[in-house]
Structures are given as structure tokens and as C-alpha cells.
Amino acid sequence: MISVQYVVALAALLFMVGAVGVLVRKNPLIMFMSAEMMWNAAALAFIAFARNYHDMSGQVMAFLIIGTAAAEVGIGLALIVAVYHRRHRLDIDEISRLKG
Is the pTM here over 0.85, yes or no? Predict the structure, then answer.
């Protein structure tokens, strides 16, 4: 059986990699994948603590996180496709200058 400390350390490592990906990269697709990694790291931490304390509330929170992440991806990818269809480029600096 794997200790909860190892699972939480893995979740923290995944969260840090995702945060670096969001902060460093300029491609919106890579940024969304990094944000998804952060969502999954949070879900992993909830599941680890739920298993450690024999409580189902952590697993319910992980289920809600996965649902919220799926909705975020649907909306985010629709926005990315719309911007690419209009501009034929995907650059965060260019997207942040859009008005209206």
C-alpha cells in the first residue's frame, strides 16, 4: 500500500509542473493542458486524503473537479478554435490585445 505522503508529493509535483506550464508557455493549447494537469493534481490529492481518512467526501470532490475541468475544456477549446478561425494564429500576447 502506498503511503499518503507519496501520493500528495506526486500531486504537488504535478501541480507545480502545471503551474510552470501555464506561466511560461504562450500557446493556449499547452496552457489548457497545463491547467488540466493542475485540476488532476488537486483531484489526486482529494482522493489520497479520502482514502487515508476512509471518507467518501474527497472522492465526491474529485468527481466534481473532473466535471468542472471537462466543462472548462469545452468552453476553452471553443474559444481557442474561434480565435484561430478568425486570426489564423494562436498567440496569447495577441489574444490579450483583443477588444470588444
Answer: no
